[in-house]
Design brief:
922 residues, mainly alpha, five-stranded parallel beta sheet, three-stranded antiparallel beta sheet, 45 helices, 8 strands, 64% helix
C-alpha cells in the first residue's frame, strides 16, 4: 500500500470506549473526541461546535450519523439535516430540514410558521430561532447536525455563523460536516475541528476483511491502494471485487468509470431516469423526475426499482436519493456538457409549468440560461426580489446575472439594471452598484431613464459618502427629468446631500421643496427621503426642536426611522420620551442595530457607562454579523472615550487603533472629526497638550466642532484641551459655538449649562460655574453636572471657600456611581485636600478587579442572577427592559470574567456568593 499514509494515525485513543467496527474503521480517535463532546455538553459544560471536514467520501456522514446515535442514547433532542446543492435559494432550508423532523422534532410546525412570518427580518429571525432552541435546551441537551454544510443556503449559513456563539452557555452541540473550507462556518472559542484524512493501511485492511471476510490477498491490497485512503471509493472497489473476484480486470482508477460500468448493465430507460435525477440533485422527487422525463410517475416504477436494486438510489419515503453524492456526481459527469445544460434548462421550464416557485427553478437557470433568455431574466429578477430581505448577497448575484442575460441594446436592460443597482446597494456592494449604474449610463439612455438611474444611484453614493458626486448627479438629473415622482425623489436626495454641506439654509429650502413635491405626487419614498433630509439638516444646524418634529413625522410614517427620532429627542434632553420609545419599539424592530445605538447613546447621557459600553459592543457585533460595519469608527470612538473616563488607557488605545484602521479604509468627514477629537483626548492625557490642541483644530477642518453631533457632549473637554494647549483663540471659538447652540435650544438644560460652563472656563468666572451647576441640576445628564461641579469645587477650593466640599462631593459621587474611575480619582484628590482642612477624611471605592465576582458591573450582576434563577436570555431581557442581544453581550462578559462555560457553572457561583440582592435588583 501507499507509504505516505501513517500506519497508526487512525488507531483508537487509549481508554477508547468503543471498539473498531464496520463503517467506522480508522475513525476511532475522531469518534472518541465526538463522544467526549457529547458527554461534556450533557454534563453542563456549555455549548460546543464540532466541524468534520474533508473530501467527498472520506467518511464525514458516517461519523455524523454515529454521533447522532450516541447523542440520542444520552438523552439529546436531535435535529439532523442536510444541505442540498440546488436548494441554495430556499431561505433556512438547510436548517429546517432537520429542525422540523425528528422524534421528537426540535421545533414544532407552529414555531416555524412564526419564524416564516418574519422572514424579512434576518437578525430577528435568527435571534428568535436561538430563543426557541435555548428554551428547548433548558431541560434537555440538544444536538443540531447539518451534513454537507458547504451547500447550505445563505440564511442557514448566516444562522450557523451567529447562533453557536449566541447559545454558547446552553447545552447545544453543533455538528457540521463539509468540504475543506472552515471559513464557511462561524467558529467560536469552543470549536473542535476534525479534518478527516485518508485511512491508514491498517484501517483499509480491516475494511477489506469486513467486506470480503478472512485474510486479504496481496492483490486486493494493491488494488485498494488506488482508493487513496478514501473509504467510500475503497468500499466501492471492494464491492466490485466481491462480485467479480480479485482476478477480474483491474478496477478503474476513477469512480466515474466504475459507475459507467455499473450503468452499462441497466436498461436504457433506467439510465435516462438516473441522468435526469442527477440533474435534479442528490435528492429529488419522483414527480419532478417524471415531469422532466415526460412520463407519469406511475410509469417509472420499474426504473426506480432497478436503480435501487443496483445500489445507486435510496427511497426515504418522501424523495429518492443517490446513495452518495459521489455517485450522483459520477452519473452527472458522464453527461455531455451540452446535454447537462439542456436538461437543466428543461428542468427549469417544467418546474415553472408545474407551478413551482422561482427558487426551485432558478438554480437550474444559473447552470443553463443563455443571453436573450427572457423567461430566465424574469425568473431571476423575481427570485432576487423574493430573497432580498434575508439573503441580500444572493439577491444581488441573481440580479446581476439577470442583467448579464439581457442583450446589450435591449431597452429592458435599464429596468433590469435598475433592479441590480438596488440589490447591490442593499447588499452593501456599493462600488459594484455604482459601476453597474455608470455602465448603463454610458449607453446614453433616454433622459427620463437617465434621471431614474441617477435617482437609484443616489442611495449608493450616499452610502459611499460621496456627497459631492451625489449633489452633482442629482442636479444634472433634475435638469432632464419630466416624471414628477422621480423629480421629487431627486430633490429629496439633493437635500440629503446638502445636509452635509456648509449652507444649511439652502439645504433646508431644498428639503422643504422636496417635501412639497412628495406630498403633491403622493410618493412614499420621496416623502421619507425629504423628511429624513430635513431632520438631518435641522440636527446638523443644531435646531434640535425642528429635528424632533421632522424625525417624529418620519418615524410615524415609517417605523424603521424610530432610532432617528430617539436620537433627536436625546439632543433635546427628552430622556423620558426616549425610554418610552425604546420600550415600545415592538418585538420585531427594524434596524435593530440602530435602535441599540440609540439605547447606548441614552445610557451615555444617563451616565450608565457600563451599560453604554455593552450596548455599543452589541451594535458592533450585530453589524459584523450582517457584514455592514457602517458605524464601527463611531462605536469605537465612544467606547474609547468611555475607557478614558474609567481610566483604562490600554483599552482606549486598542479602540483608537481600530478607529485609525477604519478611517484609513473608509474615510469620511464625520469619521475624520470624531477620530481627530479622540486622538486629541489621548494626546492630552499623555501630556502632549500642544499636539492635542492641533488635533482639535484639525477636527474642525470641514465644519465647526459642534456641527458634529457625536462631539457636542464633549465641548467642555475640548475647551480644556485648547486652554492646556495654549490656544485661547480656539477655546473662545468653542465657547462661542456652545453659546450659539444654547441660543438655538433655549429649552435644553444641557445646552444652556454647557454654554455657561465653557464660558466660565474661558473667562475663569466662578459665577458662571455656579450658573452652569444650577442649570444642569435641572437636566437629566449627570456627567456634565459632575464636570461643572468639579470645576466649581476646585475654583472654590482655590479661593478657600468651604462650599468647595459640597461641590466636590457631588462631583465625586456622580463619577463613582457612573464608574468614571479616572475622573473620580482626580476629584477625590481635590476632595481630600478640602476635607483635610476641615478635619474630615474621605475614602474611595476599591478599584474593580479584572476577574471574579467583584469584576462584574451592576448590570452584569443582575443578568447573572436572572440566568442563575433559570431565565432564558429573552425572559431576562424582558425583566431588565433591554434587548436579548444586550443580555447576550453581558453574558459573554460574565463568562469571561468568571471563567465559566455554562449556565450550570454560573448558577453555582451565584449560589456560592449568597448575594442578598433579588433577581431584579442590584
Amino acid at each position: 500500500m501507499s507509504p505516505d499514509r501513517n500506519e497508526g494515525e487512525d488507531r483508537a485513543v487509549p481508554g477508547s470506549a468503543a471498539p473498531s467496527r464496520p463503517g467506522l474503521r480508522g475513525r476511532e480517535a475522531e469518534l472518541e473526541r465526538l463522544r467526549a463532546l457529547v458527554e461534556a455538553v450533557r454534563d453542563g459544560e456549555g455549548g460546543a461546535i464540532a466541524l468534520l471536514l474533508g473530501e467527498p467520501g472520506i467518511g464525514k456522514t458516517v461519523l455524523l450519523r454515529e454521533t447522532v446515535s450516541i447523542a440520542r442514547a444520552h438523552g439529546f433532542v436531535v435535529s439532523h439535516g442536510r444541505a442540498e446543492e440546488l436548494h441554495e435559494l430556499a431561505p433556512l432550508a438547510s436548517l429546517a430540514s432537520g429542525l422540523l423532523h425528528g422524534d421528537p422534532p426540535l421545533l414544532s410546525s407552529t414555531d416555524f410558521a412564526d419564524l416564516a412570518g418574519h422572514h424579512d427580518q434576518r437578525i430577528w429571525l435568527v435571534e428568535r430561532l436561538a430563543q426557541l432552541i435555548e428554551e428547548r435546551s433548558a431541560d434537555t441537551p440538544v444536538l443540531i447536525a447539518v451534513d454537507d454544510v458547504q451547500w447550505a443556503d445563505p440564511l442557514s449559513r448566516f444562522a450557523l455563523s451567529v447562533m453557536p456563539a449566541r447559545l454558547l452557555s446552553s447545552p447545544v452541540l453543533w455538528l457540521l460536516t463539509g468540504r475543506n473550507d472552515p471559513e464557511l462556518y462561524g467558529q467560536g472559542p469552543r470549536t473542535t475541528t476534525l479534518p478527516l484524512r485518508p485511512l491508514s493501511d491498517t484501517a483499509l485492511a480491516e475494511l477489506a476483511r469486513d467486506v470480503l471476510g478472512g485474510d486479504v490477498p496481496a492483490r486486493v491490497e494493491e488494488l485498494l491502494d488506488g482508493a487513496g485512503g478514501n473509504p467510500f471509493l475503497a468500499a466501492e472497489m471492494l464491492t466490485g471485487i466481491a462480485a467479480s473476484g480479485a482476478d477480474a480486470p483491474e478496477p478503474p482508477e476513477r469512480l466515474v468509470l466504475g459507475v459507467r460500468d455499473r450503468l452499462a448493465d441497466l436498461r436504457p430507460d433506467t439510465l435516462h431516469f438516473l441522468r435526469i435525477g442527477s440533474v435534479l440533485g442528490r435528492a429529488f422527487s419522483l414527480a419532478d423526475a417524471a415531469a422532466l422525463c415526460g412520463r407519469p410517475a406511475s410509469g417509472l416504477s420499474a426504473e426506480v426499482d432497478e436503480a435501487i436494486a443496483a445500489a445507486l438510489l435510496h427511497d426515504d419515503g418522501e424523495r429518492l436519493l443517490f446513495r452518495h453524492d459521489l455517485l450522483r456526481q459520477a452519473v452527472y459527469a458522464d453527461l455531455a456538457p451540452s446535454v447537462r445544460r439542456a436538461l437543466h434548462r428543461e428542468a427549469a421550464s417544467r418546474l415553472v409549468a408545474a407551478g413551482r416557485s422561482s427558487t426551485d427553478a432558478v438554480p437550474h437557470l444559473l447552470k443553463s440560461a443563455e443571453p436573450g433568455d427572457m423567461e430566465a431574466i424574469g425568473l431571476l429578477g423575481t427570485a432576487a426580489t423574493d430573497v432580498s430581505a434575508v439573503m441580500p448577497d444572493l439577491a444581488a448575484d441573481l440580479a446581476v446575472r439577470a442583467l448579464e442575460l439581457v442583450p446589450p441594446r435591449a431597452p429592458l436592460a435599464y429596468d433590469v439594471g435598475e433592479r441590480a443597482i438596488v440589490a447591490l446597494t442593499r447588499a452593501g456592494r456599493y462600488t459594484q452598484a455604482r459601476d453597474t449604474g455608470d455602465a448603463l449610463l454610458a449607453r446614453q439612455p433616454p433622459l427620463d431613464v437617465f434621471a431614474r438611474l441617477q435617482s437609484v444611484l443616489g442611495d449608493t453614493l450616499w452610502h459611499l459618502d460621496d456627497v459631492h458626486e451625489l449633489t452633482r448627479r442629482s442636479t444634472a438629473a433634475l435638469a432632464a427629468v419630466t416624471d414628477p415622482v422621480i423629480r421629487a425623489r431627486l430633490t429629496a436626495r439633493q437635500a440629503l446631500a446638502r445636509s452635509r454641506g456648509s449652507d444649511l439654509g439652502a439645504a433646508r429650502e431644498t428639503g422643504e421643496r422636496a417635501l412639497a413635491e412628495a406630498e403633491r405626487t403622493g410618493d412614499g419614498e420621496a416623502r421619507v427621503l425629504a423628511l429624513w433630509g430635513l431632520g438631518e439638516i435641522a440636527l446638523n444646524a443644531g435646531d434640535c426642536a425642528a429635528a424632533v418634529d421632522y424625525h417624529t413625522a418620519l418615524s410615524a410614517f415609517d417605523s424603521a426611522f424610530l432610532p432617528e427620532e430617539a436620537i433627536a429627542r436625546i439632543h433635546m434632553d427628552d430622556f423620558d420620551t426616549v425610554r418610552r420609545l425604546l420600550r415600545t419599539a415592538g418585538d420585531v424592530p427594524p434596524r435593530l442595530a440602530m435602535l441599540i445605538w440609540a439605547q447606548g447613546t441614552l445610557d451615555m447621557g444617563l451616565g450608565r457607562l457600563d451599560d453604554a459600553d455593552a450596548d455599543f459592543v452589541t451594535v458592533e457585533r450585530l453589524e459584523a454579523d450582517l457584514n455592514v460595519p457602517n458605524n464601527l469608527a463611531n462605536i469605537r470612538v465612544n467606547r474609547g472615550l468611555l475607557a478614558m473616563l474609567r481610566g483604562d488607557r490600554e483599552a482606549s488605545r486598542e479602540h483608537l487603533d481600530v478607529v485609525r484602521a477604519t478611517v484609513a479604509d473608509r474615510p469620511n468627514r464625520g469619521n475624520h472629526a470624531a477620530h481627530r477629537y479622540f486622538e486629541a483626548v489621548v494626546a492630552d492625557a499623555d501630556g502632549d497638550h500642544a499636539a492635542a490642541a492641533e488635533l482639535l483644530r484639525s477636527a474642525q477642518r470641514d465644519h465647526p466642532l459642534l456641527r458634529w453631533r457625536l462631539l457636542r457632549p464633549h465641548v467642555v473637554q475640548a475647551v480644556r484641551i485648547a486652554l492646556r494647549g495654549g490656544d485661547r483663540k480656539l477655546a473662545e471659538d468653542l465657547a462661542a459655538q456652545a453659546a450659539a447652540h444654547a441660543t438655538r435650544n433655549p429649552t435644553v438644560p444641557t445646552a444652556r449649562g454647557t454654554a455657561a460652563h465653557t464660558a466660565a472656563l474661558v473667562n475663569a468666572d466662578h459665577g458662571l460655574l455656579e450658573r452652569a451647576v444650577r442649570i444642569l441640576l435641572t437636566g437629566p445628564r449627570p456627567l456634565p453636572l459632575a464636570a461643572a461641579s468639579a470645576d466649581l469645587g476646585r475654583a472654590l477650593l482655590t479661593s478657600g471657600d468651604a462650599a468647595a466640599t459640597t461641590a466636590l462631593t457631588r462631583a465625586y459621587d456622580i463619577y463613582a456611581q457612573a464608574g468614571a474611575d479616572a475622573e473620580a480619582d482626580r476629584v477625590r484628590a481635590d476632595l481630600e485636600r478640602a476635607t483635610s482642612r476641615s478635619g474630615r477624611r474621605t475614602g474611595g471605592p476599591r478599584p474593580r478587579p479584572g476577574q471574579g465576582w467583584g469584576a462584574l458591573t451592576a448590570s452584569e450582576r443582575k443578568v447573572a442572577r436572572l440566568i442563575a434563577a433559570g431565565h432564558t436570555n429573552r425572559s431576562a431581557a424582558a425583566a431588565l427592559v433591554v434587548s436579548p442581544h444586550t443580555v447576550n453581550t453581558h453574558l459573554a462578559s460574565i463568562f469571561r470574567k468568571l471563567s465559566v462555560r455554562s449556565r450550570v457553572h454560573l448558577a453555582r457561583i451565584v449560589l456560592a456568593e449568597g448575594d442578598a440582592g433579588t433577581t431584579t435588583g442590584g
